[in-house]
Every structure is written in C-alpha cells, then in structure tokens.
Amino acid sequence: MKISTTAKAGALESNDVLVTVMPNDQGGVQIQLETKRVIFKQFGKQIEEVVRDKVAEMGVDNVIVKVQDKGALDYTIRARVQTALERALASEMC
After folding, report:
1. Three-state SS at 1
2. Which ranges of the chain would DSSP assign to H, the alpha helix?
3. Quick one: pLDDT at residue 94?
4. Topology of 7-93 in CATH?
5. Of 94, 79, 73, 82, nearest to 21 (Cα)?
6. Half-sphere exposure of 44 toward its Cβ, with a 13 Å CA cutoff?
7. Neighbour tally for 64: CB within 10 Å
8. What is the pLDDT of residues 12-59, one digit of tens each?
9. Would the pTM of this model clear 0.90, i.e. be above it?
10. Residue 26: phi, psi to the nearest 5?
C-alpha cells in the first residue's frame, strides 16, 4: 500500500513519541529519528527496528516515518506508528 498524504499520531510529552508519516517519492521506507543523543546511542537501532516492523506488518511502501522520541517504550512507538499510518490510509478513502 502507498500513502499520498501526511498524518501524525502522538505527542511531544515525556514518555511519548510524535510520529509523522508522509509519502516517499524516492521509494522505500525511510526513518528519521530525533531523540536525545544518549537514547539514540543506546536504543536507536531498536526504535528503528520497531518502526520498520510495524510498517512492514501493515504492508505500507514508499513512506517517510519521522519519529520524535521523548522516551517512549516499544509498545507506544508501535501504537503511534500504526495510528499515523491508519490516519494516512483513511484520508485516502474519503
């Protein structure tokens, strides 16, 4: 599936994450992770893996996923990615 619109889910509060999904005209799944340096060093690869897994699970291609992390746990990241993708997909059906 492809998305053709931008959508968001989450918040920039402590222990949360703001996920923005947008079409990727260059193709493929691109992840842009913004977090504190220490979190990136320790958990950056894990966060990217969680995002990639959820995107693949939902069957979405050609998407940019911007992740602005404020210390969210994996299940929160998964939920926010899913919600943002569902919002982007739903807006195309209207």
Report:
1. coil
2. 37-57, 74-93
3. 61
4. Ribosomal Protein S5; domain 2 (3.30.230)
5. 82
6. 12
7. 18
8. 999 999 999 999 999 999 999 999 999 999 999 999 999 999 999 999
9. yes
10. -85, -10
CB-CB contact of 10 with 80 (8 Å): yes
Domain boundaries, the chain: 7-93
Tokens of 71: 């210390």
Distance CA 3, CA 21 (A): 9
Q: Compute φ and ψ for 20, nearest 5 degrees.
A: -120, 130
pLDDT of residue 91: 78
Q: Which residues contact residue 85 at a Cβ distance below 8 angstroms, ignoring those fewer than 6 apart?
A: 3, 7, 21, 54, 55, 58, 60, 63
* 20 φψ region: left (φ > 0), alpha (ψ -120 to 50), beta (else): beta
Tokens of 38: 């220490």
60-69, 73-82, 85-94: lowest mean pLDDT where? 85-94
